[in-house]
Amino acid sequence: MNRRFTWPDEQLIKAAQDGDVTSLTTVVMESQPHVRRFAVSLCSSPQDAEDAAQEALIILYRKIGTLRATGALASWMFRIVRNECLRQVRLLASRGDEATAEPEATAEPSAEDAVLHRLEAERIAAAVGALPRDQRQVLIMRDVQGLPGRTVARALGLSNAAMKSRLHRARAALRHSLAVTDRPLGRAAGQARDRTVDRQAGGVPRP
């Protein structure tokens, strides 16, 4: 019979906020299964989920005093885990940009280009994070991490054809999401977005 986990009650959270170490330890322990569930549903891989959950629990332990409403623990933890998963996506995207950069491209980007790139990277990371988990996994493994198609298919327990089909749906969903949330930043922003998406796709032809 599976044990049903519940969030810590408000009295326990209040005691933890007041500095009671035993209560704080209990709050962290009772929050752990919920935090891990959030991470598994939001992150792209088991390792990323574990890292995000650990980071969220550390923040909970260190900064529980900043929680204004004791009844808002669940929503606070959800936001922390979500932000950590998005941070991992941005980190992977940044590494992908560095790996594909031209060696001779040494000119410093203009302030405008830097701002546009940051805004587009934030939007893309948010859109990736909003994809269904199966689509997010294949998109990040194939397009951001640059893993070979057969490796991705094997890791996800899919045939190569099924992996390509899922990747196609993920790319289409990502482009649709970005088109729906597009803002009137001008032609330069649109071009920056297209370049960023293409870099994340690693130049791999769409199936």
Describe what you observe in this structure:
- This protein has 207 residues and is mainly alpha-helical.
- The chain has 9 helices and no strands.
- The chain has helices spanning 10-17, 21-42, 46-63, 73-100, 111-129, 133-144, 149-156, 160-180, 187-200.
- Mean pLDDT is 75; it is low at 99-107, 184-190 and 195-207.
Number of strands: 0
Overall geometric form = elongated
Per DSSP, the total helix count is 9
Averaging pLDDT over every residue, what do you get? 75
Characterize the main sheet. none
Helix content: over 70%
End-to-end separation: 45 Å
Low-confidence stretches: 99-107, 184-190, 195-207
Structural class of the helix and strand makeup? mainly alpha
What oligomeric state do the depicted chains represent?
single chain
Report Rg.
Answer: 20 Å
Strand content: under 5%
Q: What is the H/E string?
A: HHHHHHHHH
Key terms for this structure?
single chain, 207 residues, mainly alpha, 72% helix
Short description:
The protein has 207 residues and is mostly helical. Helices cover 72% and strands 0% of the residues. The protein is elongated.
Question: What is this structure's SSE topology?
Answer:
Blueprint: H1 10-17, H2 21-42, H3 46-63, H4 73-100, H5 111-129, H6 133-144, H7 149-156, H8 160-180, H9 187-200
